[in-house]
Amino acid sequence: QVQLVESGGGLVQAGGSLRLSCAAAGRTVSSYAMGWFRQAPGKEREFVAAISWNGGSTYYAHSVKGRFAISRDNAKNTVYLQMNSLNPDDTAVYYCAVGPALVPGIEASVSSWGQGTQVTVSS
Residue 15: helix, strand or coil by DSSP? Predict the structure, then answer.
């Protein structure tokens, strides 16, 4: 079983930036796709971004494309989400996800979730 621990969330003003990190423990995830989802208050959890096992392919939700960038460091068993030009609609709990058959946007394909990290964007 993989344990995922997110960090880097916080409060930021609109237009600002944050970088989320997600460290995996328990087993190496270098052969797994990884991703980020988020859940805003009163809304369902939604896909944000995903990255293939070697970082060669990345996928983004339309709402974050061009502003967010996902990357990974397999030597550190860690995935990152650089978030720029943040706006209040980005306020949510952000969850890291991993799976041997993870399909971007498909929650059912996620085998392990992190506990989530809060991102709050003030206007």
Answer: coil
CA of 99: how far to CAs of 20, 26, 68, 91, in Å? 19, 14, 21, 25
**37 φ, ψ (degrees, to nearest 5):** -125, 165
Question: Is the CB of residue 31 less than 8 Å from the CB of residue 100?
Answer: yes
Residue 50 has pLDDT above 90, yes or no: yes
Size (the chain), residues: 123
Each residue's pLDDT tens digit, 79-116 = 999 999 999 999 999 999 998 888 888 898 999 999 99
Give the C-alpha separation, 36 to 94, whole Å. Answer: 7
